[in-house]
Amino acid sequence: MENNNLNENEETNLEENNLEKQDNKIEKTKISENPVEEKKEDKKNKSKKSESKKSSDKKSSILIISIIGILILLIGGYFVLSKVLVKEDNKPNETEQKEEKENDEEKKEDVEELNYSLNVYKYSSGAICNEYNADWCKDLAFTIKTKTETAKVIKGEDAFVLYEDDGLRVYNNYDGKITKLNLENQYSYYYLNYKDNKILGILYVNQSEMFSNKGGYYNIAKSEKMYNFKYDNLILINDSNYLSAIKDKNVYLLSANEEKEELVSTNNNENEFPGYFYVNCFNNKCFYYVADGDVYNIYKFYSNDKKVIFDKKTSEGQWSFKDKYLYIVDNKVVKKYDIDGTLMSTSKAFNDVKGLIENYAIYVENNNLSLVNIDNDKSVVLDNWNEHYYFDTFISGYYTREKLDNMGEKNKPEGIYVVMYSNQKIAENIYGKEYCYTKTGEVKTFDVKTPQGGRAKPVLYLYPTKTTDVKVEFEHPEYLTTTYPKYNNSWKVKASPNGDLIDSNNKYYYGLYWDEIRYNEVDFHEGFYVTKDNAIDFLEEKLDIIGLNPRERNEFIMYWLPILENNEKSIVYFELTKERERGNKLIITPKPDSMLRVSIHIKKVNSKVNIKEQKLETFKRYGFSAIEWGGMIY
Prior knowledge:
Blueprint: H1 2-33, H2 35-90, H3 94-113, E1 116-122, E2 139-146, E3 152-157, E4 160-164, E5 168-172, E6 177-180, E7 189-195, E8 198-209, E9 212-219, E10 224-226, E11 232-236, E12 242-247, E13 250-255, E14 261-265, E15 276-282, E16 285-291, E17 298-302, E18 308-311, E19 319-322, E20 325-330, E21 333-338, E22 343-346, E23 353-357, E24 360-365, E25 368-373, E26 379-384, E27 389-391, E28 397-399, H4 401-406, E29 415-422, E30 432-438, E31 443-448, E32 459-463, E33 468-474, E34 480-484, E35 491-495, E36 501-503, E37 508-509, E38 512-516, E39 526-531, H5 535-546, H6 550-567, E40 569-575, H7 577-583, E41 586-589, E42 594-604, E43 612-613, E44 625-633
Parallel strand pairs: 39-43, 42-44
Antiparallel strand pairs: 1-2, 3-4, 4-5, 5-6, 7-8, 8-9, 9-10, 11-12, 12-13, 13-14, 15-16, 16-17, 17-18, 19-20, 20-21, 21-22, 23-24, 24-25, 25-26, 27-29, 28-29, 29-30, 30-31, 32-38, 32-44, 33-35, 33-41, 34-38, 35-36, 36-37, 39-40, 40-42
């Protein structure tokens, strides 16, 4: 079939060729007959062909250009349409647009309006102070860019500053970040809560009346207030995400992350201050415990799962932490608990435990003052026991190399320090003994050359709820005679919750001491008759009623007991806060939440005296507490 078709096509082509040849032959004959016409016609035909070709070429060019244009339009339209669709998909909603606009405006405001500077000053110790002082706060810590020229520091701690600058703001010197707070600048006091170089929140307090603080907590991450005026005596718990507060005479552990009550401790004694919650954490696990305002009287201990592991008021200073373990004296033995509440061990019985330092117990046995490691039962004798000594719970402790250097004690070794004062003169300018059990197991002995007190002996303890810069002044400084540290128009110290005081020269004190001229002598129209035989019982009973804690009672009794016993018979009057304030008012900044001033007046008599018994009021401490005791002899 394919071959036949091919033959037929060939025959058709041959016929068409023959016909074309004949036509050409006739055409040539016509042309030869009239050559002039032929030329004209030929020229005309060529012109027509040329015009036809040009027209054809022009049409082809137009067609090509049109096709290319259409393709460009189609491709361009595709891309434009794609971009429009993508843009529409990514277009923020109204809320996002508003937030973006606000952020842009805020950035613009920060850039455009932070045209001023606020200088923040520090003590020589490096701690931030609230205002410049040419005598003791003159070193520039850093400078903050501010919106207003009148910006001022409200509160400074570590590397954080709360300041007023067209509203309250917080500056973090670690990263230079400024956070504007949705918190009013209308409260009496502010306390900063920070951890791991990050500011967490602000405790704000109104002191509506003496000894009654109410407030709330501002959570910076949530930019909202929590616990707003729902509790009394709201305080921060250092280095934790918790707060403590009191309500209906019970003490509460509160979360600083969300408005939630974590624990409540019921106060079974209505006449006793319920205390505060405190937290000691190790690797994200914590002991929780309830103690009074100076953390020396313990009411309860809780394990990490918030179960009670100890429910009893302990004696003075007889509990301690060592890493994730709790050591506590219970019925003359030392019990060791892990952080989950498991009882790990129980020591042998001690007749006279003076105190605990980490995992070491200080005790008296066989007329020796000794130190024992509770974990391995290894003991060492520090010295022969002197019945006139008494253990100083505040100064005793483990002192690191860094802490000793900061105190100016560069020649003393790192180790456990046991400090014993004497209520009798040991030698000229020697007031007690200081024993150091070093890391190498040696015992070093030093003389205590700082007096614990003198005649009239007012001494002031400061217990803020958080490390605080405190200024102490007297209404009548002209009454002062001897002062320690030296009083120059005022005392300015950094006070810790446990009572530790550091001055601007980094020197350590556990209290502020002064003597005064004799003024405000009493007439003993009321008081108490005391004999040598009942002096101890008398002091313990009355000081407990007045409200001194065990450590303060101990120091008070050690000083004044020998005087009562030497008198054989005495009459005694207690001058308390209101009366002391009338004589020489104490001006403490910031103002304490609770303050007790007590001065004992002792007069020797030769025979029994019938005297109207003095009615004593009971002091209740809470919040930032200031305690003073002293006395006068007639």
